[in-house]
Amino acid sequence: MIRTFTGIKTEGRSSHPLWMPAGITATLLYVLFIGLPVVAILVKAAQQKGLMASLLSDTTIQALQLSIVTSIISIIIVVIIGTPFALLLARKDNLLLKFIDSLVELPIILPPIVAGVAMLMAFGRQGIMGPALSSVGIALPFTTGAVICAQIFVAAPFYIRAAKLGFQSVSTDYEDVSQTLGVSPWQTFWKLTIPLASPSILSGLALAWARAISEFGATIMFAGNLTGKTQTMPLAILTAMESDIGASLGLSVILLFASIVVLIILGFFANKSWRANL
Hints:
It is a single chain. The protein is mostly helical. Helix content is 74%, strand content 1%. The chain has a two-stranded antiparallel sheet with strand order 1-2. It is globular, with a radius of gyration of 24 Å. 31% of the residues are buried.
């Protein structure tokens, strides 16, 4: 006999008779909806006779190289700036920081096209900072630097939010004890705080890199679609769709596998963080 949450005793019946079939049906529908397009890309790419030739074309290689280089530079900048920013948000609590903290996710919910327009209005030749940048010989729009700026704009919140949560998970008592034992604050940060917060930091790093390398909307508005200069992989996919479906599918497969790798990394660090909290 089983006592349910209503206090009424029942016998031989499941405690979840209604939602279980609905949950199974919803799961199957979701898996089909998400999985079928992914499988379709792989099948169609395998059917392309000139797939390897398309992947080895100059345009494809240039787009791949540009995406890798710019995304790595973007992530390095995000880590350098985002780490102390996230630590400040995790350790200090005042009205100003709460307001700033609430704006961290703004680039995530902001439509990418709007983000590109906003960056043009800020850093373009006719933008707010345009004349000042031009006076020192800096022209950002439609350059490789604009690609990096667009990637930083959209990717930074993923790293900052994850790093903040990681730092919040490290008790300040540990840091206080470390310093009472004669360890400097700097050494405590590198030898204690960073290792304990590393699962969240690294998962945020993976998410930020995936967002940077897949950035499209802000890039095409702020940096344009110039082959070899600002044409990243997502932009190359758009261009290839007009003339070479094989190259488009090939680049899509590359980004697909990159996404799968990121998911594997996230799963690894999420599991590591969960075990560490046991």
